[in-house]
Write a structure and sequence with these properties.
The strands form 3 sheets. Strands 1-2-3-4-5-7-6 form a 7-stranded mixed beta sheet, with helices on both faces. The protein has a 5-stranded parallel beta sheet with strand order 10-9-8-11-12, with helices on both faces. The chain is globular, with a radius of gyration of 22 Å. The chain is α/β, with parallel strands linked by helices. The mean pLDDT is 90. The termini are far apart.
C-alpha cells in the first residue's frame, strides 16, 4: 500500500512540509518519502547524525507511517557509519522514539532531545568527572565561542577567575564559525595559560551546538525559545552537577538578539537549579564596545591593523599569519555574524 522512495527534489520536500505547517531544515544529507500511490504522505530526513524534518499528512496518521520513516532512517544512518543518532520531538511524542531504543537526554517545556547510542551523554559525563578538580565545590563556568578571541573575552574570563575558586571554560566546538574550533580553542588556551584556576574544555556536542541549540546557528526565530530551553536543560541536568558549578558568567549582549534572548532565559532557568548567573558589562575602549563581530567587520573591510586594539597579542599574531589567510578570505566573502 505504502511505498518508500528517496526524495531528491528539495523543493518538493519543502512544499510538503510547509503544507503541514513545518519548515524544511537546511543542509539535509538524505530524505525519504512515504507514498500512497503517487501521493507523498510522509517524510523524514537526516542531517549530520540527527533525524529531522519528520512529517506525516494528517489524513494518514496512525497507519504505521512514522514507524516506516524511523526504521528506514535509522537503517540509513547505520549504513552511513553513524554510531550516535539524535532526534528532537515534542514532549508528548517521546514514546514514538523510545520504542525504537532512543533514550531521553533532556526534556524542555517545548521540545525533547533523545539519542540512540551506546556512548552519548553518559560517556560525556564520565569525561567531565575526569576533568573535575578534586575537592573544589561551588565552581564557576563560562561558555564561549570566541570567533575570534578578543580582549573582551579575556576581560570576562579574568573577572570570573578572580571571583571564583575554579573556573571551567567551555569552548563551543560546533564548526559553524568563521574561525574553526581548533584555532579558537588554541587561542583561548594560549591567552589564559597564566590563570592557574581556569580549565579550558572543548564543548563537545552537548553545549550550544546544532544538536542542543540549532536555532543559534540557523537563526530561525520561531525555534529559539524551544532550543534555548533544551540547551539549558542539558547544562543543568548533565553538566553542572558533575563539575559542582554554581555560577555561570556571561557578558552583556548589545548586538545579537538570539544571544540576548539566551542570556535572559538563562537567568530565569539556571536560578531554579541553584546556579547564579552573573552578567558582566562588556569591556569598552572609550565608548567603543569590544566585540568579535566588530573585529570580523574590520577584517572584512581590509582594516586588519585596526583590529589590534581589540585583540590579545596571540590573536592578532594569528590573524596576521599566513596560516590565517584562508580564514581572512572567508570573512571577506561572508555575510554571517557567527
Amino acid at each position: 500500500m505504502f511505498k518508500e522512495k528517496v526524495i531528491y527534489n528539495q523543493d518538493k520536500l519543502k512544499t510538503f512540509l510547509e503544507s503541514l505547517g513545518l519548515k524544511k531544515p537546511e543542509g539535509l544529507d538524505y530524505s525519504i518519502g512515504i507514498y500512497y500511490g503517487e501521493k507523498l504522505v510522509g517524510t523524514g530526513s537526516i542531517k549530520g547524525n540527527t533525524l529531522q524534518g519528520i512529517g506525516i499528512n494528517c489524513n494518514y496518521q496512525n497507519k504505521g507511517i512514522l514507524g516506516k520513516i524511523i526504521t528506514h532512517l535509522m537503517k540509513k544512518c547505520l549504513e552511513m557509519g553513524l554510531e550516535e543518532i539524535f532526534v528532537y520531538t515534542k514532549p508528548d511524542r517521546i514514546i514514538n522514539f523510545t520504542s525504537y531504543g532512543f533514550k531521553l537526554v533532556a526534556k524542555g517545556e517545548y521540545a525533547v532531545l533523545l539519542e540512540w547510542t551506546q556512548k552519548g551523554i553518559e560517556k560525556y559525563k564520565e569525561k567531565l568527572k575526569d576533568i573535575a578538580v578534586d575537592g573544589i565545590q561551588n565552581t564557576s563556568s563560562i561558555v564561549m565561542n570566541g570567533n575570534p578571541f578578543t580582549l573582551g573575552h579575556l576581560y570576562l574570563i579574568k573577572k570570573a577567575a578572580a571571583e571564583s575558586t575554579h573556573l571551567y571554560l567551555f569552548v563551543v566546538e560546533e564548526e559553524a564559525s568563521l574561525f574553526p574550533f581548533n584555532v579558537r580553542y588554541e587561542l583561548i588556551k594560549e591567552a589564559t595559560e597564566n590563570l592557574d584556576n581556569v580549565t579550558v574544555i572543548p564543548g563537545g556536542q552537548y553545549i550550544i551546538s546544532s544538536l542542543t541549540f540549532p536555532s543559534y546557528f540557523t537563526r530561525d526565530e520561531n525555534l529559539v525559545k524551544a532550543h534555548v530551553d533544551l540547551d539549558l536543560e542539558v547544562f543543568c541536568t548533565h553538566i553542572a552537577p558533575g563539575l559542582n558549578i554554581t555560577k555561570r558568567y556571561i557578558g552583556t549582549e548589545p548586538y545579537c538578539p538570539v544571544t540576548k534572548e539566551y542570556n535572559e532565559a538563562m537567568k530565569e532557568k539556571l536560578s531554579k537549579w541553584g546556579i547564579e548567573v552573573i552578567e558582566i558589562e562588556r569591556k569598552s575602549i572609550g565608548e567603543d564596545i569590544i566585540s568579535a563581530s566588530k573585529v570580523r567587520e574590520l577584517i572584512k573591510l581590509g582594516k586588519i591593523e585596526e583590529t589590534k586594539k581589540y585583540l590579545p597579542q596571540s590573536t592578532y599574531n594569528f590573524i596576521k599569519s599566513k596560516e590565517a589567510e584562508d580564514i581572512i578570505e572567508k570573512i571577506r566573502n561572508s555575510k554571517s555574524r557567527h
